[in-house]
Amino acid sequence: MKTLTLGEIAKVLNLPVPAKADLRLTGVNSLVEASDTDISFVGSDRFLKELAATRAAAVLVQRDVKVPPGVANAILWVDDADLAMVKVLEMFAPPVPGPKVGIDASARLDATASVGECSAIGAFVSIGANSHVGARCVIYPGVIISDDVTIGDDCQIHANVVIRERITVGNRVILNAGTVLGTDGFGYRWDGKQHLKMPQIGTVVIEDDVELGSCVCVDRAKYGATRIGKGTKVDNLVQIAHNVVTGAHCIMAGQTGIAGSTTLGYGVVVGGASSIRDHVTIGSLAVIAARSGVIDDIPPGTTVSGMPAIPHRQALREQAAMRRLPDLWVQSRKAQEQLQELLKLKDRLEAMLKQPDATDDVLGT
To answer: Choosing from 132, 158, 195, 242, which is the catalytic residue?
Structure first.
């Protein structure tokens, strides 16, 4: 079990030495589940109730949080509790088991393949002709790297990843288990009798500092390149089709699907289970809410939601109107019933005017 003192944590966070610098901590947990040897965090006033009840020995607290008097936990005041917690988690993170530096005896490397210094090539890895793996990479068991692939330095490629031919992967890239780069793009044309497969002769380029989750599929381009921009983070089970180009530092949540030849600008956020049609452009810093269906271009900085996706405020108004429909339907039925009564009364009045001597009968008296 890894143990750190509160003073060691404060030093990493560039904070003054705390009063309880020698307090020993064994882990990180939520306020509700923390033990008396854990550190936790509070990022807003919404969690003050949990803070009052927590057993955590120490808590990172954002400076704008109004902590009531009487809190006994050791507190480290920070500017951003979430960012501070990232550093604390890194301190407690156990090493990820992996292959040792060198090439496992069961790995198969083509005679023309090359591996940089201090890289670790795990069991049953296959590296094809003219492919290069950079320095300090970790290639986990079962990875298949095809011919003419270039992989940069300091990459982590987890078990059962497949990198097809003629793919370029940048530096410090993380590919999680089961991800596939370079499957043929989904390109077919109907000739009147059958769907003809269109050759996909392009490539995939993964730029520096990209992380792809498990079972992500990035298809090769029909021609040119499918490109994932620098620093982009992609969740599990995401499909990125042929000739998609993303800007730097985009983020895509799980089960998202992006159709061919779509362009994403810088810093685009795509919520989970969203669908983006082909040949649209998503402007920089746009936000696509979860389960949205994008069928048109989105201007930079716009937040959209819904199916089809529209500006988020408009979508909220439409949803509010939809929630009123049951009441409006009841009101409509009542109005129809009242109208029918009025029409009956109208008919009786007309009958009365036609038979002035029978007024009492018409009025039902």
So the answer is: 242
